[in-house]
Amino acid sequence: ITILQIVVGVLLTIGILLQDTGSGIEGALGGGSSFESVHTTRRGFDLFVFHATILLTVAFAVLGVVQIFA
After folding, report:
1. Per-residue confidence (pLDDT) for residue 43, from 0 to 100
2. At a CB cut-off of 8 Å and minimum separation 6, what does 63 contact?
3. Which of 25, 41, 24, 44 is nearest to 52 (CA)?
4. Cβ atoms within 10 A of the Cβ of 66, count?
5. CA count, 13 A, side-chain hemisphere, 44
């Protein structure tokens, strides 16, 4: 399970880094211009990466819980 958790963790990190938020550090701190805060619809590859990241996050959490109780 540990090797599987490492693989899922690496894939999760890649998925998070592939997401293009476009806000940078200003968006994380609440700054930036109002143009940057416009919501855009995810399509194509962005939508796939978004869903894959959610799936990998759930898998990582489940593997962590299983490892605790195993």
Report:
1. 83
2. 1, 4, 5, 8
3. 44
4. 12
5. 2
The closest alpha carbon to 35, from 43, 45, 26, belongs to: 26
Return the pLDDT at 61. 96
Contacts 24+ apart (CB under 8 A), 57-61: 57/12, 59/8, 60/5, 60/8, 60/9, 60/12
The per-residue pLDDT string of the chain (70 residues; one tens digit each, 9 = 90 and over) reads: 789 999 999 999 999 998 866 555 555 555 555 555 566 777 888 889 999 999 999 999 999 999 999 8
